[in-house]
Amino acid sequence: MEHDNNEKLQHTASLTERLRDHARRTPQRLAYTFLRDDGRIDEITYGELEWRAAGLASTLAKRAPAGSRALLLYPAGLEFITVYLACLLAGLIAVPATIPHKTRASRRLKALLDDADPALILTRSDCEAAIMASLSLVDAANRACLATDTLELFEAAAPLPTVQLGATAFLQYTSGSTSLPKGVEITHLNIASNVEAIRHGFGFTPDTVMVSWLPLFHDMGLIGSVVTPLYVGFHCVLMSPAAFLKNPRMWLEAISHYRGTCAGAPNFGWDYCAKKIDEQHKEGLDLSSLTVAYNGSEPIRAATLREFINAFARCGMRSTSLFPCYGMAETTLFVAGGPRGREPLVRTVSKSLLEGNRIRDIDADDPDARAIVSSGHVAPGYRVAIVDPDTRRQVASNRVGEIWVAGPSVARGYWQRPDATEAAFGARMAGSDTGPFLRTGDLGFLHDGELFITGRLKDLVIINGRNVYPQDIEEVIEEAIDFIEPNMCAAFPVEINGQERLAIVAEANRSLVRAAQQAGASKEDKLRAKDDYLARIEQTAQHICKMIAQQFDVSVSSIVFVKPGTFPRTTSGKVQRSRCKELALQGQLDLVYVMPGSIFDRRGARDALPSQPPALPPVPSAPAAVPEPEPALAASENSQATADAMIAWFRDYAQRRINSRVMDERRTVPPYVVLDLGNHGFFGLQAPRQYGGAALATVDLMRVLEQLAAVDLTVATLVGVHNGLGLRPVLQFAAPAARERLLPMLAAGRQLAAFALTEPAAGSNPAAMRARAVKTSGGWRVTAEKQWIGLGSWAGVTTLFAKATDENGGSLGTIALLVPEDTRGLVQGPEALTMGMRGMVQNTVLMNDAFVPDSAVLGRVGDGMDVARDAMLFSRLGIGAMCVGAMKRCAQLMARYASRREIGTGLLLENPVTIARLERVNAGIHACEALVYAIAEQIDAGAAVPPDAYLACKTATTELLGQAADDLVQLLGGRGYIESNIAPQILRDARVLRILEGPTETLYAHLGAMLAQPDSAAAGFIGGTLEHPELAAQLVLTASTNRVATLTGKRMFETQAAMTQWLDYRHGELAATAFLLAAAERRARAMPGLEGAALACAWARRRYDALSQAITAELAARTPYSASAAVLRQVNGYLDAIGDVEQALPGEGVELDAALRQEQRAQEAGASLPDAAQPAVQARPAGREEAPAPLRDLVQSCIQKWLRSEGRLADTALDADTPFTSIGIDSLASASIAVDLEQQTGATIAPELLFEYQTVNSLASYLAARLPQDVEGQPA
C-alpha cells in the first residue's frame, strides 16, 4: 500500500533569509514571548532578534570555522533561539541538547561529545558552572564553555558565509540510546521543505498565534515552535516544560490571554490537562480562539481526545480544532496531519486480527474492538509506503506493515554513521529501484490517503512522551546488580489502563532461586521473610526501581526474576525482548520472584511475597506527665487574680527600685532587679504552679508584658525573651525528666534561658543555617556560631538549633538542643553594642565540637524548626502586647507635656496638630490592643491561630509604636532630645522591635504573598475569628485585582519578579491594617460605649482605604523606579562630593562591621561578609531519616492524594519508607505531587526531588532542612 502526494510546494528561501526578510519588512513585529516560571515576561521583535543573532554570529565566526559543531546547552528561553539562529548565520552546525543533570546525565553527555565533537560549547552564564561540573565528570573539563550572554557582539567585519540550502544546519539528537546517540543531520533545505509542508497542512499565516511549552532542544519544540513561526512570520508564546508540568493551567491561560490559534503537545499533555485541571480552575479560560490543537510524537488515544473535549467544551474548545499528526526527527518533523476543521477520524478495528497485522472494522462496543486515530493526510510532496519489513514488499490495503517515508525533508542521515544511515535511510523495495525510503520502525496502514499508526516495530519505549531505549535500561541494571550479566535482562513496555509502563525481566542466580523456593514452600516458610536471601531478592528489585527512576525519570511498573537458564535469548545469545514480553504476559515464564501487584503477579494475596521486610513494632514513648487541670472558671479567676497582684507589685516596685537611665548607661540590669522579679514569679509566667510558676492564661500574660513595657522596654524584653523563647520550648517540647529538672529553676529565675537561632551568615533562615550537630554515641557533637543572642551569657540553659546529620553525613533535619551553660566547648563570645535595649546582654555564642547528650533534644530529631516556629510565633504576640504598653506610656507623656506647655498659639494640647497626633496614637492603641487580646483569647480557648495573624500583630504594633515614639520626641521638641527625659530611650528601645523576630519588610512580603494562595489564612482569620467576612473578601479581591494589573502595561521595576515582590510588600501592609480594622470593629461591637472605640474604628478604616487607594494609584501611574545598578551609580557619584572617610581611632577596640567598611580596608583586614544566599553544606540523607512528623504527614498526604486521583489508593500500601518507585511515581506524577507540596508549603519544590529522595521519610527530612521559615536574620 502506498500514498504519493505529489503536490509541489515552494521552499526556495532558507530560514536565515526569512529572518532577514522579516527584520527588514516588519522590524517591530513581535516574534517570540517567553513566560518565565516566576511571572516575568521576555519579548523580542524580529528586528532585535536579527540584530542580536547577526552580532553573535560574527562573534562565533571568529572562534570556529564554518561547518564546526556548536553544542547548545540552554534552559528554556529566548537566549536559546538567538544562539541557534546565530549558529546558522555563522555557518556552524548547531547541536541542541538538554542541560545535563548533575548526577544522571554524564553518560549521555560523554557519548554526545564523542559523537558530535563540538568545537564550541555554548550556554548561559548562570548555567556555566553546572555545565563545567558535568564536563569534569566525563573527563572533558578541558573543553571551553562560552556564556553567550556575556560575549561582546561584533558588527560583521566581513560578510557572514552564504547559507547553502544543501549544507547541514543542525544535528537533532534523537531520544535514542544513551550509549550510542544518533545525530540526525538536518539541512537548510530539509528545514525549508518541512516548514512549507507544516504551513500548508496547519494553515499557518502571519496572523497565527502559537502557544507552546514543548522543549526547544527536541524536534517537536524546535521545528514546531521556533523554526516554523519564524519562517512564516507569526507570533509564538513560549513557556518551559517544567512550568507546564507544575501547572498545566498556565498553558491554557496563555492560550486564553494571548488568543492563541495553535497549540500542540504529545498525547500525554492533553491527557494531563484533562485530568489535572478541575472545574474550579477552568473558570476564566477561553479556548474559543484555538483552531489547531495538534497531537503527535507518541501514540494518540481516542479516549484522550474525547476526554479533553468533554473537559473543556465549556471553555469554548471545539472538537474540530483537534489535529492528530505524525512525524519524527528523521523527517525534520512533519509527515502527515489534518485536514483542519474536521473532527478526528477514528476507526474501530478487531484487536485480535490486528495482532496478525490484519485490518477489519468492527462495532465500537465489541469486546474485541480497538480504536485507532487517524494521523491525517500525507503532506504534499511526501510519499508513504506500507511495507512488510521482512520481504520489503508493499502490503495490501487491509494489512499492517512498517511505515516507509520519502520526501524533501527526510534527513541526510545519521552524523558520521554510514552503516546506520544506510539501514534507516537507504531502504528500497524488493525487486525494484524504488526509493530510497526512510524506515520509520513504526507500524501502520493507509486508508483513503490517511495514515493510521498501530504500533512500533522497534523496541523503543515511549512513556509520557519520552523515548527510552531498552538497551540503556538494561545496561544500567547490569552495572548496578553484580549477578546480572549482559543479555540476562530485558526491558520492554506493557500497556496498563491504556498507558505504556516499563517492565523488566531478569535472570536470577541460584542462591536467589533457593530463597524464593523456600519462601513459597509452605506457610511456615513464608513466615521466614527476614531470611537473608529473601531480603536480598526484594532489596535487589527495589534497588533496580530506584536506579531506573534516578537515571531516566521513569517508574518501573513490573519486575520478575526467572530461573537460571530460562531467560529468552536468540541462538547467538541476544536478548529477545518481544519474546520475553509475550511469555511474561501469557504467564509462561518460569518465575522465582514477581513484584507484588505488578501486571505479571498472578498469585493471590495470601501467596504474595512481602514487598517490605517485616517492620519492627513501634517503640512506645511515655507521654509527658501532665498535672490534673483546674476547672476552667477557677483557672481563669486564679490567673486573673495572680496577674492583678503581679501588676500592682511591679508598679510599686518600679517607682522605688528601677532606674531605666542608669541601666541604659551602664548597659546592665542590676542583679537585684533580676532576683526580685524572679522571687515574684515573673520568670515563670506560664509555668505550672507545681513548679513554682504563675500559670497565667495567655490573656493575663499579655497584660503583664504590657505593664512591664509601659515602665521599661528592656525589662519587658528580658522577661519576654526568658518566658517566650527560653521557658516555652522547655514547657512544650522537653522530655519529662528535663522538665522536672529545669522548670523549678527557670520559673524561679534561679537560671535564665536563652534562644540561639540567628547566625552571622544565615540570620534566622534555617535553609542557610551552618550550625552542625553530628550524631555520636549517646548524643551529638555540635559546632555553631550564633549571633545577637538575647540573655546569651546570662543564661543557665540555651535552646540551640543546628542541622543534624547521622554518623555518615546523612541529613536528619533540624534539631533543637537544650545546652547547659557548663557544657564543655560552649564559649560565650563578645557582647554586641546595641543601639537600644542596652540593659540586656546580646552576645555571640560559640560551640566548638561540644558534646550534648540525647536527653537534651527538644521534641524529635528533625523537628527542630517546629520548636523554633512555636516559640517565635508566640513571641510575636508578646511583642504586640509590649508595644501596646509602650504606646500607652508615649501617650501619657505626650498628653502630660502638651497640657502644660504654652506655645505662641496657646496651650500645646489645644493645637490641632497635637490633637490629631494624640488621637492617632490613641486609635492605634485601641486597635492594637483589640488584635493582641483577640489572638490571646483564641489561644486560651484552644483554637488554632494561623501564623499570618501573629505576623500581622507583630508588624502592625511595632510600626505604630515606632511612629508613637517618634511623635513623642517631636512633640517634646528640644526636651525630647535630652537623654534624661525618657523619650530618647523609648525611641531607641522601640526601634529594635521592628527588626526582632522578623523585620517588618520581610513579614509584610510574606503576608502579602500568602494572600495569593487559595483559602488565604489571613482572610480566614479576618472573616471568621474577627467576624468581618466583607473585609476579608474585599482584601482578597483587591490583592487579586492588583496582581492582574501588573501583568500588562509599563513596569515600575526592571523585572516582573520585582513588581511581584513590591506588590507582596504593599499587600502585606494592607493585610496588617485589615487585621487592625477588623479587630477594632469586633471589639466595638462587643463593648458598646467603650470610650475611643468609635474613633479607633474610623481611624483604622481611613488607614485601610488610604493604603488601598495609594497602591491602586501607584499601579495606575506606573512611575518607574531606577534599576539597582543606576541607584548604585548615583550613590557612588557622591564620592567626589564627600569622599569616603572611615575613622580608624588608635586604641579603639570595637571594629566596624565588615559589611560597612570600605572595600580595600575590609580586604586588608581579611574581613568578609558571609553569603547568606548560600546554604550550608548540603547533607544527603543516608539510611533511614527520622523526618519531622507534620512534614512527613504532609508529604504522605500529597502522595495519597495523587494515588486517589489515579484510582489506586485502596490497593496501594504506602508508609513512610515505601520507595516511590514501587508505587509508580514517574516524571508526570512527580510534577503533580510537587505542585501540591508547593501549594501546601509555599516554597518552590522541584519535581526531580522525588527521584533524589525516594521515600516519604527521606523527602520530608530533606524538605525540613531546606524549607524557608523566617527569611531574614535578626537578634533572637
Automatic annotation (TrEMBL):
InterPro entries: ACP-like_sf, Acyl-CoA_Oxase/DH_mid-dom, Acyl-CoA_Oxase/DH_mid-dom_sf, AcylCo_DH-like_C, AcylCo_DH/oxidase_C, AcylCoA_DH/ox_N, AcylCoA_DH/ox_N_sf, AcylCoA_DH/oxidase_NM_dom_sf. Its cofactor is FAD. CDD domains: ACAD, FAAL. Residues 611-630 have a biased composition (Pro residues). The keyword Transmembrane applies. Residues 1189-1267 form the Carrier domain. This is Carrier domain-containing protein. It comes from Massilia horti.
